[in-house]
Amino acid sequence: MQPSPEIVLEAVQLGEQLRRFAHAYYVLDNPLVPDAHYDQLFTRLQAIEAQYPDLKSADSPTQRVGGQALDGFQTVVHRVPMLSIRTETDTTAAGAIAFDSRVRKELELTDTDGPVAYVAELKFDGLALNVRYESGVLVQAATRGDGAAGEDVTHNIRTIGQIPLRLPAGVPPVLEVRGEVYMSRQDFDDLNDRQRDKIAKGIKGEKTFVNPRNAAAGAVRQLDARIAAQRPLRFYAYGLGEVADANGPIALFATHFEWLAALRQWGFAVNELAGVFEGAEALASFHQRIGAMRDQLPFDIDGVVYKVNSLAQQRQLGFVSREPRWAVAHKYPAQEQITTVVSIEVQVGRTGKLTPVAILEPVFVGGVTVTHATLHNEDEVNRKQVSPGAKVVVRRAGDVIPEIVGVVGRMGLDEESTLAQPTPNAPDELASGLFSMPRLCPVCDSVVLRIDGEADHRCTGGLFCSAQRKQAVIHFAQRRALDVEGLGEKLVDQLIASGRVNTLADLYTLTATELAGMERLGEKSAANLVQALETSKSTTLPRFLFGLGIRHVGEATAKALARHFGSLDAVIAADLSQLLEVGDVGPVVAQSLRTFFDQTHNLEVVQQLRDHGLNWQEGQAQSQGPKPLDGQTLVLTGTLPTLSRDEAKALIERLGGKVAGSVSKKTHAVVAGEAAGSKLEKAHGLGIPIWAENALLVLIK
Ligand code: IVH
Predict the structure, then answer these.
(1) Cys-Cys link to 121, which of 172, 177, 274, 543 (CB 3.0-4.6 A)?
(2) pTM of the model
(3) Ligand 1 atom 2: the closest Cα is on which residue?
(4) How far is Cα 284 from Cα 120, in angstroms, rounded to an integer?
(5) Cα–Cα distance, 531 to 505 (Å, whole number)
(6) In this predicted structure, what is the pLDDT of residue 39?
(7) Which residues are part of the catalytic machinery?
(8) Distance separating alpha carbons of residues 99 and 105, to the nearest angstrom
């Protein structure tokens, strides 16, 4: 059956709309419509195409989802070879200076010639890709391979939202765009969390990924595009392959930077940190500046890249073997290193969770010396086959706790062997050499339990366990809770070890005289601490609720509870179904609250704290009319034109939203003002909408 002209028109319009929305969402980080609306249009287009297959074009937005699995990859010979790049291993400023002098020498420049202009970019740690457009339509995407020929991965690349399927009118008839496919750290962590869940559920053939680059490479080389489509990949464009019309190669621009601007214009993501810099010193300071923000970037980089900006100068410089003389990679310290496991210790957290921690031979990774690495839980230790004496790869990327990626061998044994394959369902026969959690808490000797279907082991000692007590006190005293200044970890250690502080309430019985007798605490500090404890007594209900350290009750939940119930007694009295009425509270949180308040000793501590004079303003339970920002988490960054931080926060909370301190995938929007920094950068990377202050002011009206 032929489609009616109306249907043809509708399909064309849907295609155009979806392309525009997708570009705004993936590339501009500025969604134009809610996801649900996008999905609705998308489903409608899919339905039309299903009925009239002739209307389905190769560049239809529906073609991103991924179709049939392939048997293998076709080889693609690169029309313009994909070169590699010389690496400056000297990680200090000397690397930039050496490169600039080589360039100047080759260009036969003298001191009177002025500085050479370079483009400095990030060196993304993913995999290189060549994407070919003919008449503005994506026709092929290939990996770098050996530089002369790679693999055809078009089916998977079509699933990446940041790669346009069609370019605007006016682009060269043949255009090959080169860049890096990568996965953000957050997406990588989330993916591995999901993988760990699957493994815990016993799903066969699933594994965790060692780092974002591996996860990205695995996704790009999937034969089944439906699997690739579920892996959150991104793409930054940084260069070109063949650019031609019917008569052969064409030159559109005179500089590399103009090309980057054009690519951005045509809908590609080009990293905003790239810029033009003159001379070696400017390059060195770029290297340094990016190095300082490396941990805060939302994705891994292993260095920066300098490229001579003028294309005429690039031609003049040419190549040595397969490396251009006009570009260099200037590295940073590696984020993965090999070291040896000395032992495995078990630490007990505030909520009683036992975490195995590998004690390592100190090793310099990602700019710091690492001596400990988390192993998450018992299963993880065994899956990775980590044990004392094992040589392991340690990864530290971003501001995160170092992790063990995998075992590469044993002391003195097969040092050359590659990463051990994780064995998701290690058979019982291997049981002998397996790590198992202690049956009793290493701190308090209480029984350790692992709840069915959960990966974690927990100490059942509760506040009887001094490790949990210590963490509970530290949590209670922190700035965002009761804010007791001067109650540091060392002091808490002493107070707990001496048995002087057994409950949170005991803190308020401390006297200046006895505190002054403690190690490393003078009379002045002792008096200050007693004063700080006194001051902390005037608090707020959310701070108090948060400070109690109830499992799963973070700051935002505490605020939601206080707002909903108005008073502490109402929270304590609420049953499960009443707790579930609170916007921020799900079954797990509700159960955790009930468990906490069902224990008499917890109620006693709460009463003692009140008896010591802890007080807060109790309010009315709030009416629950829907608010514009219900359930949304916002992050503030930079200086807003009219509102102070506190005012903006209060405003967001009045609108039903929450304010978080850092940007993650769960952030709904970032409100940015003047001089916004890494949070804005991170939001860009994660595709989170950026609002101006005005958005809040409009909403409150
Ligand atoms: S330019 C002739 N720019 O580094 C220069 N490469 O090149 C060709 N890489 O595996 C490469 N970020 O995937 C260039 N901003 C960037 C890059 C970059 C990452 C990777 C590239 C390749 C390796 C060596």
Answers:
(1) 274
(2) 0.62
(3) 83
(4) 10
(5) 16
(6) 77
(7) 123
(8) 10
